[in-house]
Amino acid sequence: MAQVEQLLPLPGPPGANAAWQQRSLRSIWHPCTQMQRAAVVPPLPMARGQGPWLFDLEGRRYFDAVSSWWVNLFGHADPGINSALKDQLDSLPHVMLAGCTHTPAVLLAERLSALTGGVLGHCFFASDGASAVEIALKMSFHHWRRIGQPEKREFVCLRGGYHGETLGALAVTDIDVFRDAYDPLLMRVHQVVSPDARQAAAGEGAADVAACAAGELEAFFAERHAHIAALIVEPLVQCAGGMAMHDPDYLRRVRALCDRYQVSLIADEIAVGCGRTGSFFACEQAGIWPDFICLSKGISGGVLPLSLVMTRDAIYEAFLGDEASQGFLHSHSYTGNALACRAALAVLDRFAQDQVLDRNAEWANRVDAALDPLRIDPRVEHLRRRGMIWAFDVRPEFAGERFAERFHLAGRGHELLIRPIGHTVYLMPPYLLDSGLAEWLAERLLKTFHDVISAEDAHADRTPEPAIA
């Protein structure tokens, strides 16, 4: 239990949290937040982080069970990443990547390409995941124009998928709460059924659902492929859609269909890449490579914004020509930021030196065993895991109103920073588990679950609360 006991809470000034919460609410528009509701559930003012722990201004600690929106791979204030950043800060914090280059960007692009066996040979850098998706969509569309097939300009996405909240990325997202208000602004795209294994009928498994979903995609491609530029998927796990997991065979079938019908395959590995699913790239588990991979979140270890798109040489070469207009004219001021790239190199060093994936697999089994009581809990369904992502769904009749909010608040009381998605509770912790932490994390999750469900059971007969306007 060393990591659990090592960082016990230290007292801080009383009232410090409340004071900064109010200042924050007066000045910051927080993301994914109904700000009127934030007055009831104010944001936690964090003072520092160390390893998997975050500490508020009054000294209370919280285990970062969601890796601060899935970005933090090796804990907060990691000494190795921090050392690399300090070294880079003293030499070259940033230079524009138009007309210039620098060592961290070159090395990062080379090392990532090597991880694909050279199949994906060039990196285009940006700053955030949605921007990477925008780049991949534009590259695919423009590539078909460059090779004389301008009619291929439509996109296909999966139901329940999420790819970001800029307009292009939002167009290929199928989560109503994010896209409904902006639907009139969005380009029209095609949607096909998700291979979400939770759809399995009696006697079926995840592979059967994958085959059925691929069959629908095949029928659609057969009819419309001449107009389709690309299909975009989240390999193995549709994260924001409720941690919907699917069989790797779906990706194999999709790759074959994209080859047959000349459709680009975009793998959005923003959330699932960098080891989250048990392999560095999720696509590796299917033995395939897409035409584009989008990476962000964990690639910089959760310290600086960075995203990138990797693509095949044939696509890169389609943009070569004598005129600037023949190139891919897309840019961000902080594209390929040297500090962020240096952090990413430190992340790759950790994977190369520390057997991260093997260690994760070992401790993930400990979490599985500790969560075993949920398998027979009648209030829970679809307990599942892929790599370092765990999830289960609370049956609606047991969840009650504002389940995610109540679970988040109860989690705070058990030293957890956790944010369910609807009725789906999930864990996506940093890669820092040991036997003590694995058991502690599962124990605190179970306590939080029982507190929330017991409280709901006690008020099951109450009149529903009116919605807050």
Alpha-beta classification: alpha/beta
Helix coverage percent: 25-40%
How large is the count of helical segments? 17
Number of strand elements: 16
- Unreliable residue stretches: 461-469
**In order across it, which strands form the biggest sheet?**
4-12-11-10-7-5-6
CATH homologous superfamily descriptor of the largest domain? Type I PLP-dependent aspartate aminotransferase-like (Major domain)
N-to-C CA distance? 45 Å
CATH architecture of the largest domain: 3-Layer(aba) Sandwich
Rounded radius of gyration (Å): 23 Å
Query: What's the mean pLDDT score?
Result: 94
> What is the top-level CATH class of the largest domain?
Alpha Beta
Largest sheet: 7 strands, mixed
Q: Which band does the percent of strand residues land in?
A: 15-25%
Number of separate domains: 2
- What spatial form do the alpha-carbon principal axes imply? globular
**The CATH topology of the largest domain:** Aspartate Aminotransferase, domain 2
